[in-house]
Amino acid sequence: MSPASFPARPSRRGLLAAAGSLPAALLLGACGTDTSDRYESGYVSGDGVATEIAAADRAEPLEFSGTTYEGEEFAAADQRGTVLVLNVWYASCPPCRKEAPDLQALHEEFAEQDVHFLGINVRDAAGPAQAFEETYGITYPSLPDTDAEIMYALRGQVAPNAVPSTLVLDREGRVAARISGAADPSVLRAMIDTVVAE
């Protein structure tokens, strides 16, 4: 067999360069493989898709629970009979920062109509999450979900890299509407109005 039939042995420098590029490749891979202009840096940008689901077509109620950053226990089952708005976010996500004041304003607007808001934070420890809430005046609770247990419960409703995302649950706990990407407040308001009127 001729020497040309054997692969060249990589140099130590080549191996180190390849190893150094591995974290960058893994990071880029974690951002998803969709290269459309809706995806940037691991989140869906503000031109996300909004979907409403007719009552007859809604799936089973979502079941999840957790402990808020303030130490309060939360269970989705305890919210039956109310409309629940879920927002998936993390502190360093630019569209999450952009939509935060609008979400707080809608939380205040619908508070007397038995509409509750809940954040699902997929990345942050208590310090960064609570600093974000203080900066943007967020008064509704958030559940940490760094182990992705809640996101697993939301599978099929929220894409893993679609942060931010917002879900509107009907009084039975079923997903009635969703927004992938930063929520347009007028669109989200109309979605909530529709579910409240049911």
Mean pLDDT: 81
* Name of the top-level CATH class: Alpha Beta
Shape: globular
Q: What ranges have pLDDT less than 50 throughout 5 or more consecutive residues? A: 1-8, 12-46
Number of domains: 1
Radius of gyration: 21 Å
The CATH homologous superfamily is called Glutaredoxin
Helix content: 25-40%
Strand content: 15-25%
Main sheet characteristics: 6 strands, mixed
Total helical elements: 5
Helix and strand content put the structural class at: alpha+beta
Strand order of the largest sheet: 3-10-9-6-7-8
CATH architecture: 3-Layer(aba) Sandwich
How does this model look, in words?
The chain is globular and about 40 Å long. Residues 1-8 and 12-46 have low confidence and may be disordered. Strands 3-10-9-6-7-8 form a six-stranded mixed sheet, covered by helices on one side. Strands 1-2 form a two-stranded antiparallel ribbon. The protein has a two-stranded antiparallel ribbon with strand order 4-5. The protein is 32% helix and 21% strand. It has 198 residues and is of the alpha+beta class. It has one domain: Glutaredoxin, CATH 3.40.30.10. It contains five helices and ten strands; from the N terminus they run αββββββαβαβαββα.
